[in-house]
Amino acid sequence: xxxxxxxxxxxxxxxxxxxxxxxxxxxxxxxxxxxxxxxxxxxxxxxxxxxxxxxxxxxxxxxxxxxxxxxxxxxxxxxxxxxxxxxxxxxxxxxxxxxxxxxxxxxxxxxxxxxxxxxxxxxxxxxxxxxxxxxxxxxxxxxxxxxxxxxxxxxxxxxxxxxxxxxxxxxxxxxxxxxxxxxxxxxxxxxxxxxxxxxxxxxxxxxxxxxxxxxxxxxxxxxxxxxxxxxxxxxxxxxxxxxxxxxxxxxxxxxxxxxxxxxxxxxxxxxxxxxxxxxxxxxxxxxxxxxxxxxxxxxxxxxxxxxxxxxxxxxxxxxxxxxxxxxxxxxxxxxxxxxxxxxxxxxxxxxxxxxxxxxxxxxxxxxxxxxxxxxxxxxxxxxxxxxxxxxxxxxxxxxxxxxxxxxxxxxxx
Length: 413
Fold this sequence. Notes:
single chain, five-stranded mixed barrel, five-stranded parallel sheet, 13 strands
């Protein structure tokens, strides 16, 4: 009895769940709808079994930790990519297939093309333009490296010449520098995911001030991981400044354009990471000598100024200024005394003259000469005979005392 078609199965429910075979059949049916597709990826593993005409490939995405199994006839592989090796980039025409017995998904390829160098370079150029248009290469976003980092993170191959060059030359320039080294594959299918993981670890380490990604020279294919889009975007988004030290002067992976600093070689990276202790010591010595000369010049100039002040009379003989002021005070006091005496004598003379004049003009002086002042009873001074009448009592003031007199009628003779 044949099994029912998956489409004929009723809708699943807690009361009527689908059997595993039905679910498997439906998954296979949905996958089969994708049809034939062209797939691009990197060969992580090739398995050729003796006596078998089927070749098994593990195809991974260079920018993600994802892979698929690919099956192909040996003739298909030999016709399209006879010298295919692990790590190569390929483009293949395949159809996804789901194997219900194992619950696995694979691709069945009927055409495999190994991507040549020209195609790789064309892809890199397109990616370079895309990243540049998005601003990942912009100079204004690049950060300056710290003058003297406390700790340097290094991502490089294990026991590689690049690791040795960076560590040796950096410590030669600044012996006390501290490193945190993470060794990763620097080529091949597993390079990019492990580099991304190492970058994340170092970027999250608060003690790391700068990160260096380094490897020696190699072919374009060997340096492909350092032009990976995912790696470029991860470096662009890193919190910590990143130095790219890949290959030689002529090598220019896309990482060089995204990194904050591009070093032409791992040795050049050491020169950019830390200052040279000998040069800095020499600069300090030069600066110290300049400072000493400046201080001595300043002290000498101020000494001359103080000596000039000390040679002035006011400081050389300060009592002279006091004596001069004392003499001036004495002279002013003498002048004041003389002026006051002169004014007092002149005022005394004027007073005596005024007294003499007053005495000369005083009625008392007139009375002394025998004159008298005649006054009526009301005190009016009589100046003419017509001012009195007969029998008026008059008061006669003499120089000494006074008299009373009465006016008599003048007798005619």
